[in-house]
Amino acid sequence: MQASFSDLGYTSKKKLTRRDRFLAQLEAMTPWAALVAAITPFYPAGKGPGRPPIGLERMLRMYVAQQCFGLSDEGIEDALYDSQAIRRFVGMDFTREAAPDATTLLKFRRLLEDHGLTGVIFETINDHLARQGLLLREGTIVDATLIAAPPSTKNRDRARDPDMHQAKKSKQWHFGMKAHIGVDADSGLVHTLVTTPANVHDVTQAHALLHGQERYAAGDAGYQGVAQREENRNTSVQWDVAMRPGRRRQLDRCTEAGRLLDAFERIKARARAKVEHPFHVIKNLFRHRKTRYRGLGKNTAQLQTLFGLANLVMAGWRLRARDTLTAF
Question: Which residues on adjacent β-strands are paired with residue 179?
Answer without folding.
Answer: 145, 195
